[in-house]
Structure formats: C-alpha cells, structure tokens
Amino acid sequence: MILPLVILYVVTLVYLSITERFRTYASIIGLQGWILFGVALLRLHRIDLPELLFISVETLLFKTLLVPALLFAVIRRTHIHRVRTSGSSQFNALLLSVGAAAAAITLTAAMADGNIDRVFFGVALYAVLSGLILIVVRSRIFSHMVGFLVIENGVFLFSMAVGTEMPFLINVAILLDIMISVLMLGIFFMRIGNKLHADDADSLTNVKD
Amino acid sequence: MFPYLLTALAAVAAAIFGAPLRAKAWVALAVVAAASAWAGSTAIGVLADGAPRILWQADGFLLGGGGGSMDTLSALFVLLISLGSVASVLYSHGYLAHSLAEKSPAHVSLHYTALTVMALSMLGVATSDGGYTFLFFWELMTIASFLLILYDAERRETVRAALAYLIMMHIGFVLLVAGFATLDRACGSADFAALAGYFAGRNPLPLFLVFLLGFGMKAGLFPMHVWLPQAHPAAPSHVSALMSGVMIKTGIYGILRVTAQLADLPALRTAGLILLGCGIATGLWGILLASAQNDIKRLLAYSSIENVGVILIGAGVGTLGLAAGNDTVAACGLCGALLHTFNHSLFKSLLFFGAGNVLTQTRTLSLDALGGLGKHMPVSALLFLAGAAAICALPPLNGFVSELLIYLGLLDGIAAGSGVPAAAAGLAALALIGGLAVLTFTKLYGTVFLGAPRTHEVAESTEVDRVRIAAMALPLAGILLVGLFPQAALDLVVRAAGALAPEAARGTASLPPVMTAVCRTAWLLIAVTGLLYAVKSRAQRRRIRRTGPTWGCGFTAPNVRMQYTGESFAEGLQSVAASVAPRSGEGRAVDKSELFPAAHNFDAEHKDRIDALFAAWWVEMLRRINRQMMRLRTGKVNHYVLFALLFLVTVFLLSVFNLIR
Amino acid sequence: MMTTSLLNTLLACGVALAIPGLINRVRARLAGRKGIRFAQHLYDVRLLLRKGAVYSPTVSALFRAAPAVYLGAAFTALLFIPVGDLAPLLSFDGDLICFAYLLALGRFALILAALDTGSSFEGMGASREALYGALAEPALLFAGATLALVCGCTSFADLTAGALFVSMSGMHTAVVLLLTAYVLLKLVFVESGRVPVDDPRTHLELTMIHEVMCLDYCGIDLAMIKIAGWFKTAALALLAADTALMAFDCRWWTAAPLAVLLTGAAVGVVESTRARNKLVRNTTFLLTLAALAALVFFTGYLLQSDIEIR
Amino acid sequence: MLLAYFILSVLIALATFRAGGRRTVAMLGTAFFAVQFALAAALFRCGFRGGAEALFFTPDALGSLFFVLLAAVSALVFIHSRDYLADCAIADYRRYAALQMLLTAAITGAYFANNVAVTWIFLEATTLCAAGLVYFRHTEHSLEAAWKYVFVCSTGIAVAYLGILLLGTAATGGSLGYEALAREVTHGNPLYLKTAFVLILCGYSCKLEIFPLHTVGVDANFAAPAPASALISTGLVNAGFVAVYRIYRIMMQTEAAPWVRSVLLLTGVASLAVGAFFLRRTNNYKRFLSYSTVENMGIAAIGLGIGGPGVWAAVFHTACHTLVKSSLFLQTAVMHGIYDDYRINRIGDYMRINRIGAIGFLLGAVLLLAFPPSPLFVSELMILGGVLADERWWLAALLLVLLCIVIYSFVSRIVRLCYQPNQDAVHRPAASHRLAWTALVPLGAALVLGLWQPEALRALIERIVTI
Q1: Cys-Cys link to B190, which of B4, B63, B317, B630 (CB 3.0-4.6 A)?
Q2: What is the ipTM of this complex?
Q3: Among chain D residues, CA nearest to B114
Q4: Taking 50 as the threshold, does the pLDDT of residue C164 lie above it?
C-alpha cells in the first residue's frame, strides 16, 4: 500500500515541475500532505500510540489543511495566478527535474545497503532537488515558498523512513520545521504583501553590492 | 620572548601616541637608539670575539624553531640596521617637521610607531634562527614598511605604490613559507642551520631557488625589482633611506644565509652561477634604467637595484670560489659582497636624505626642474656629492673598497684559471655598471646641484636644519671611515664572512696588505689633490681674478632653460639602450626637419619593460574573472539557491568521476 | 727599491711630457711641415700657469676644485704604472682596478665641473664624455683581465716582473699580449680624446667632447687639466708598451721609448690620415673595442686551456 | 548547570520583551550577562573539561571555548547597542535587547548540544532570532534581507536535516548523539556518510557563511544594526563552525575522511574566491566586512580540509577571527554614527575625523589580513605551511593569488576610508570616544593572542583537535 502512495508522490513532484498555475501548486502541496498523512499512518503503525497520534495530527493539521489554505489565501489576496514565463520554459524545467531524478536514482542505486528502505531516500532526495530546482528556475516568491514546502515534505517523508528508530527528536525537529514554514508563509502573507505590493522576487533585489 | 615583545610594543606605541606632536620623533629616536645601542654593542662584542650569542629561546610549536641568536654574519647586519635606523629616525624629525601640521596627529603617531617597529623587526629578522620567528619578523617588517610608505596616503600614487609593494612582498613571503615548510617537513626543524642537512641529502636546487626568489623579492632581484622604483618615490625620504639602505639588505641576508648552507661542490657551483647571473642581470638592468630616470628618488631606487646586483655578483663570485676550492676568490667575493652591503646602506641612506632635503626645500624631485642647488644648500650638496662619489665606487671612498674586493675576486679567479668565463662576464658587467654609475650620478648631481636654477622656487631654496645635517653626517662618517681605513672594515667583514664559510676566512691572508696599500693610495690621492689645490689657490691669490659670464660659444642670449637637462644628458646612452627603457612621454620633440621650430612641449619618461610584464596580462585576466564573478551578484533568491544546487551537482559529478576521493 | 720606484715615476713623467711633442712633430712631418718645436706644449702650459683666472658667476667651489682632483687622480694613476721592469711607487694586488677607478674619478670631477658652468655646450660634452668613458671601461678591464689571465697575477708590478712568465713564453702568449697592447693603444685614443673619437683641434664646439668640457677654464686650471691629460695618455701608453714588450723582454730602457714612439707615431699618423668619427659612430667604435677586448681575452683563455692540456 | 543556565537566560530574555524602560533593560541585561559569565566562570573552574552532561548538552572544550568568546562579544555588543540605539523607541530597543539575548542563548545551545538534531534545532532557532534582529529597522531593505535570510536559511537547514537523517541511518545504534555516532559510524556505509556530509555542509553553510549559501549571511549583516552584525558574523558563524566541526570530527574516523577533506578544500577555496572577488567590488563597508568573514571562514575550511595541523589552525583561526571581526563591526557602528553612511566611495578622511577609530580600523585590518602581530598570522601560516608541505602546489598558488586579491582590496578600501579626502563638504561632528573601548578590547585581546598564545589555550585547542 505504501508503494503506490510513494509513486503518486513522485508523480506530484514531476507534475510540479511542469505546472505554471499557482492554484495547481497549492493543490499539489495539499495532495502531498494527504499522501504523507497516509504514509505516516501506514509506516508508523509500529510505534506507540501517543506518538503516532501526535505525528498524524500534526501532519493532518499543518500539511494537509493549514498550509494549502494559507497558499490559497495568498493567491486570493495577491491576485497573481501564474509563474512568470521569464524563468525557464516548461521543457527545461522538466529536463532539470529528470536530471535530478537521474542523480537521485544513481545515488540510491549506489547505496548497496539494506539498512533502510532505499526508495524513501531516493524519493526524498528527488524531492529536495526538485524543490531546489523549483526555487532556482521560478522567480516569484510564491514559487519559492512552494519549493521550500516541497523540500520540507521530502525531508518529512525520509524522516518517516527512519522515524521508527529515533522518534522524539525527530518529532521536535519536524515540528520546528513546520512551524518555520508556517511562519514564513505568515511573513509572506502579512509583511511582504503589504510592503511591496507584489510577490515578484525581482523586486526583492535591492540588497546587493 | 614574545610576551616581552608584546609589552615592548605596547609601551612604545603608548609613548609615541601620548607624546606631543613635535616630540614624537624624539620618543621614537630614543627607543630606536636604545635598541640599536644594545644590539650594536652586542654585535660589536660578537664581531670582536667571533663567538655566537644566543639571544632568546622561544618555544617553537610552529615551523620548528623560534630561537634567536647572533653570529658574526648577523652581527654585521645588526650593525648596519642599527646605524641606518638611527640615522633615518634622526632625519625624520626635520624632514617631517613641515608636514606635521597637515597630518592628523594619530597618523603621525602611527608613522613613528611603524618606524620603530620597522627598526625592531629588522633587528629581529637579522637575529632570528629561522622558522616561525623569522617569518614573524619578516612579515612584521613588511607591514611596518607598508605603513611607512603610506605617509602621504592622500596621494593616489602613494597608495598604488604601497599596494604593489605589499602584494609583491606577500608573494615573496609565501615563497619563504614554502621554503621553510618544505624544510620543516623534511628535517623537523625550520632553522637555517637545518638547511645544511636538507641540502646534504637531496637535490638542493629547487629549495635554493624558492628561497632565492622569496628573498629576492625583498632584495629587488631582477625581474622582481618593480616595486622599488614605485615605492621609493612614494615614500617619505627617511623611509626610502631605511628601506633602500637597510631593508632590502635583509633579502641579501637571507640569500647569503641560504647559500652558506650549501656544501655540495656541484650545487655550490650552480648556485654561484645563478647568483652571478642574477647579479649581472639585476645590476645592468638597474643601472641602465637608473641612468634614464628623471626623478631623483626613482633614479636612486634603480641605483639600489644596481647595487643589489653588484652585491650578488660578489656573492656569486665568492660561491664559485668556494665551489672551485679557491679560498682567496671565495674570501674576496664574500667579503666584497658583505662590505658592499654595508657600504650601500651608508651611501644610499645619505643620498636619500639628500633627496629629501631637495624635496622639502624645493617641493619637487624632477631633475629637469632643479639646478644650482649647490649654492643654496651648500652643506647638503657637499654631503650628496660624497654619497654620489661613493656610490660610483670612486676612491678614496668606501664604495671603492668593496667593489675592489669583488673585482679582486673576479681577477683572482681569472688569474687562477678557475671559472674564467663566468668571472669574465662578471667583470665586464661590473665594469660597465661602474662606468654607467658615473654617468648616472654625474647626471643626477650635475642637474640637481650644479649649473643655474631652472625654476624660481629652486632659486629661493635654503639650507636645511642642523639635525638633518647631523643625520646625514652619520652615514658620511661611515663612508669616510671605511674608505680611509679599509683595514678595519675588512677585519669586520672577514669575521662575518667566517660565519658564511670558514674557508673564506682562511683565504683572506692576502687581503690586509691590499687594504693597507689602498689606504696608502687613498691618503696619497688626498694629499696630492690637496696640495695641488692649495698651490693653485695660493698662486691664484696673487693673480687677477675676474668674474664673467659662462662662455656661450658665441650665442649671446643664453638662459637657464637652455642648460643640459638630465634627459638630454643621458640621451646618448638611451639611444643605445632604448630596448631596455623605451621612452614614452607626452608631447613631441623638435623634429629634425623643423628649421624654425615653434613652441614645443615635451615631457619624457622612461618606462621599465618589466613593469608592463607584471602589470599587463594577469591583472587584466583577474579583472576579467572578477567582472564575470560580478554577474553573480543579482540579489535574487533564485541565484542564492542556485549556488547550493551547483555545489551539490559539482560535488556529485566530481565524485562520480573520481576527481575527489 | 725606493730609488727604482722614483726612477720609474720620473721616467713615466718624462714619457708624459714627451708624447704630445712627438705627436705634434709626427703630424707636422706627415703634413710636410717642419712643425713647432718639440717642447712647445710645455711652453704653452708655462704661459697658462702664469695667467690669472676668470670664473663664471654660475660656478661653485666644485668648479675650482675639479682641476686639482682631475690632476691628482691622473697623477696617482700614473704612479701605478711600471716602466718596463722597474717597480712602480704604488702597487698591490688588483691595482688595475684602482687605476681604472682613478681615471673614473678624474672624469667624474671634470664632468661635474662642466655641468657646473650651466652651459649647454659643456653639458653636451660632459654627456658624451660620460657615455664614452662608461663604454670604454669594459674594454680596459678586459685588457687587464687578459693580462691577469696570461700572467696569473693581478697587479701591474707583478705583470712586468719578468720572473713570472717563464712558463708563459711562446707564440700564443705573444700574440695575445700584442693584441692586448693593441686594445690598450686604442684606449689611449679614447681616453686622451684623439681622432677618431674626438678631435682636439676642432673649432666647432658642437662636435667637441673633451675640449668643450674645459671651455670655461683658463690659466692654472686649464694647465692642470692639460697636464692631467698628458698623464692619462702616458699611463695608458706605458701600459700598452709594457704589454707589447712582455711578450719579449720587458726592460725600462725599451719600454719608455717604445711608449713614446708607439703613441706618438700612432696618434700622429691616425690624426693625419683619418677624419673624426661621426659622433653616433663613436658608440659603435667603443662597443667594437670592448668586443675586441673580450675576443682577445677569450682567445687567451682558449689558448691557455690548450696549453694546460698539453 | 546548563539547564539552569538556559532557563535563566530565556526567562530574562522573555522578561526583557516586557521591560518598561531603558534602565530596566539595562538591569535585565546585566543579569543576563551575569548568568553568562557565571557559566563561563564555572566552565573555567572545571578547566573546560566538560562538567556533567545535562539532557542534550555537554559542556565540552569546543563549546566552552566558543562560549567564552560569545559571552564576551555579546556583552560588548550589548553595551555598544545601548548607545547605538539611544534614539530609538523603547519598544524597539527592548525587542532588540531581548532578541539579542535569545540569539545568544540559542547560539550557546548550538555550541553545547551533544546531539546532531539538537544542534540543528538550535541553529534553526538562531535563524529566527537573527531574522528578528535583521528586521529591526523595519525598512524595505531590512525586510528583504530578513526574508531572504529566513527563507534561504530554512531551505538550507532543511537540506541539512536530510543529511542528518541520513547520518542517523548510517549509524546503526539509532542515537543521534555525537559520541554515539562517532562510535557507530566508523564502519558505516561511506556513500551514506558522504551524502550526509555534503548535504549538512551545504545546509549549514548559510550559518557558517561559506560558499554556497554565504549570500544571506552577507545580506543579513548588511541590514542588521552594526552591533548586531558583530554578533551575527562572529558568534553565529562560530555556531555554524561548531556544528560542521562536530560532524567533521565524526567523519574523520570513517572511510570517507579523505573525501570529506577534499570537499572542505573545495568549499574553502570557493569561499575564498568568492570573498576575494566580491571584496574587490563591493561598495559598502558592512558588506565588505561580511565578505571578509566569508573569506576567513573559507580559510578555516581549507584548514579543516588539509587536516593535521590545519585543524588546530582552523579552530584557532575561527576563535581569533571572532575577536577581530567583532571589533571591526563595532567600529563600523561608530563610523555610522559619524558618517551616517556605509558607502565606501562616499566617506573618507577618517584619520582626521576620528583618530582612535581610524587607528583601530587600521589595526583591525592589519590583524584581519593576518599580518603579524595577528593571531591569524599563526593560523594562516600553519595552513599555508600545511598546504605547501603537502606539496599541493596548485592549491598554494591559488591561495596565494586569492589572498593577494584580498589584501589588495582590503587595504585599498581601508586606506581610502582613513585618508581619502572627504567627499562631502559637510562638517562632521567630533567623534565620541566613549565607546571606543568596546571595539578596542577584543582587538587588544587578539593582539595579545597573536604575540603570545598561553599554554593553556594551546592545550585547550589541542584537546579540541585530538579525536
């Protein structure tokens, strides 16, 4: 049951690289939240109940509900719906994404170690790389935010792969991470929107040499 | 040792910063004089009994040793440094007096602190055993001298020159680090003494070359001399004197120290040839460019390069003598090199002080704007003349004694039939250098001090204060002492040479009679000349003496602008040596076809070809790289993250292709 | 010892006084004239010595002292030169260098004196003198080095001391020594300002070298400069003569006449038959001379190595 | 002990948020730094040998060394800030003071954490506190810088987290404590370790201010008030260093060690290059000093990269860099008070306007460029010597060129500041020397360290370095 979920997750990542509409981004982040929730339930059933509850509630609350809701709110507020075409064309983005996938697969394949589920690592790495690529090729702050969330989700996915072994600190860290993402969305929502009246990253280039 | 140094530095800085503006020079002088007196007396003690003294013992945790000791070689350099530093600080009082009001007191304090630190660090360099302590003092000396050059930091040229100096010194420093680190890795100690062990076991040439380049950077070895002619005109004159007269000698010191550790005969021979070759190139290049210069201090700077060349010729001859087992040649070469080092510090200080006098009294250093200063500043002119004659190695002054020793080494080598071609090359170069030095310094002295003043300001200049004259008298005393009593000087350098090579000390038996004869000749020359002058004056007293205008060869309306300028004086040589020092300049000279020339404005300048070599391609390359790098500064978050992605990809690819393991 | 040295000095002075006379005589004869009397130059100098002086307001004390330095240096230089097998008054290892630098001292003084007048003509002459002097230096030292190489010693006195070159006889050595003498003779032309380098009889200041430098001198000063010139000429001439004779048998009674005859005849002949060089060609002339000296030196070196191999 | 420290510190910091007046803030600050120095004294009493382990913290030698430096620098910054921010509203000031205290406490947490994850958590916490300081001025610039800082740091740190998790999986025991990791990871899969290391290094580079994520640190220093920059580019950078160094030490016991060193060399050289080239072109003194931090941390990374004596040098370099850089940033604060500008081409003649400041700046520059009597001279000499003794000529040549560029750019700028005739005709107010001592004290300390490293300090670093 986990494998289809993971595959679906990968598909969302690929889709992220080619889509250009912010609403789609927000939906996909939401979908990833649900997938992660599913994986958490399936993967972590072995650990004791309170922690399982904690994690699943956390995932449900933040990743599936709050974050997508905030994203949608931002879109509504700023009335910006598409990425700027100035970044890179869809094809190039897809190419980069495929490259990242290839790198992730190479590295995963080279890790001849059955210690953990290798697939998780590969997918997480792919997620991190696609998040970075997303940040690099798209120039709007919204896409940067989404890129960060993708990285976040990737790390979360991997943490569940190892989570059975070291739960407590992982939980704290994940919680902090999620808080940060929410906080950033908050800053984005409250401050930058107000002050700069645009979510264009190009306007955030005054601080340089 | 370092805690004491810390306390000393803090105390000196506090004293100088706390002193009133005019008294800062005296505080610095007191400190430098005290240190010099102590170091000098120790040095004299060492030279007297020949036994090395251990001065301090620092625990060495880095690059081997941290000890300091003084053998006879160090003692000679300590003596030289002490004299030069005291004279410079003494001179600075009067030299800076007129500019104190324009500067911030903090800046003046900084200058004097740096001056003191410079003197102390040079003493440290000359007495360190090697390794960390040596490098420490070496770099301290560099940074102190850098701050000293910056006295007129408002001027852009000054800053540029100081920076060029600093960068070149840093390159030299890294080379020295390379040398000491290699030594440390191989022998477990980075003392100079450990070099002997290193050289004995391995191919000594690479390390020797690394040290030669590293020290050569400081000494102004061709083609690494380019900083000298830039830094000296930029620096205040007492600093030029200190740097040119004393500091570059630390480079010589290092080269000699390293060479002395070579024991293997073929290696010695190669080293000797390298030194001789470097000396010939440096000397000729220096004098050819010196003769072309039209700025007093630039000219003096090139002349320093030339003298470094002469010193290296001496060192090369001495080394070749050692290699050939000819003790006399070795003794002559090494003693000559050492004595010339000492002598050069004397007359070059004197000449730079003289240039400083000219600058403060006339506000210009351009040869072709000066003239006739001899009548307005008679004492300075006389002192400068002594320096000029000494640097041309004319008897009966000190330059002659040291060059004679080097020549003797060359001639003895030829007479003994060992290494004849090399010696002949050295001889020819030295002869040409000597001849051109006369040309250069007659040009300098003649255009600046003789004839009629070319500008109004020059005509109104006056003599400098007594303190400065006293500061100049200090090196003059040395010049006369060495020139007129060469036996004593020889005795001194023979002991110093003994620390370099014991064989050399054995080969000096034939030298004392020569020195006695030189002494006799010198006095005879003085006596004959004095007698002739006295007789002439006496005879003329009874005759008619009239004053009339200079014979104009029939031209009835001569003016002061028609005098032969420095540029025209050296034109004959420049037509031969145009490939070395191409003339560039603004304006156009009068053409041959112009029968009735209109007004022409022509400003000639002679560039050093090596300058272009150093400035051109790699600076341009760096600038281009820099410009490309600047494209990265977009301020975009995308690109910030792009760096990370690129980094990951690079590491990934490098690992995949096994480029990093 | 002392007496021979004094004799040596006297002889050298005699040579110095004789050479200009002979030159004049030779020149006159070659031109088909009877010529002035042999000692005319001495009378001229006596006349000068009796005169007063005119000084330019531009000049400083240096100008007045320069002739004394010039003459003093030239005289001291002469003291190093042995006449044949006589011992000179001054001698030490490497006195060759001292000799060269004493000449340089004289030149230094005279150039500065010329520059002191502030005259552009004198500056011109000084500039030329400085350049030619510098370029002549390698030739002189190469000649000295050749002597050192051939004889294995570095002082003039030892060179001519006869006993030294027992092992050195032979054609090779003779050739090298004669060539060296030739170089030295050419140096006489340069150092004493003779055709083809300089023409002492010219009346156009623009083309003068040595003469233009002393334009402002008169009276005793000029006399001293002239005498110094004789001494310089004599010193180099004696050196050339010694070198030439070293190949055979070097005695004072051969060396002194030879010096006078050689120089007198050579200078006289050349001045009668050749024109002065164009000034720009002087540089080439001097460089060629230096190259010749180097060539002689290396010939000597090769021959000597050859001898040693045998 | 450590727990008490954290509780007290955080409580005081939280109380500062609610302080009523400047006097209260000052009192709270005194209390806060009393706590800091009490801890420092306690650490000193047990000879930095590490007392009792408290939950996730171990006061070991490494943490203690940097903590002492942090406490000193932070206290100086606090004192300096009081005057620097004399004319801003109390609400702003107390927020600033509280954030500074929180940042100090968070950095301390990162120093002493004995667990990879805890270090990570505290580093994340520092991001938040530092962002608050960066956003202090509420200008567009500071907002932008704060946003970039938070965003890129969070991204970086998320990436680092992936590395940490991977490191955890490489170790078999399931604990993320450093000691446990060091024990278990020795025979771990090298590929895991390498991937983990490169991800962690890449992520932490935003704190350590080395390539690739050095940019945000520079921006943050630029936008933050100058005294805060002093803390960010020393204490916080050291936190990054400590975090990377602890991982580095673990890695040194594994098969991946040579690879790790190569990666560090690569990073170091890249940082040095970036620092050097950007130093050359930047037109703002604070950015300028930040790039110098990039460059110096690059040198430290190279030190770690060459191993052997280089590690000692790297630790020493970082420690001494703290002193010099904090002094220089505090001096820019003074400079700002005079010129109200940081632009290099607009200000000059400092030597006349503020003598003490100019001398301090010059001295600081000399020390920072590793000329004797600088402590950095010792470390750079060791690193250079190490590179050269290993006969890595290309690396040495590259270092030489880059260091020359650094020296050139740095010196030309400092000389301009001190001597270039002032561009504006405005008459400058006479500088107040009241706070000069805050900047000069660390400089003096650096000077002392340059000439004389106490045996105890050497032994301490020796202990940090020995595995």
Answers
A1: B63
A2: 0.92
A3: D363
A4: no
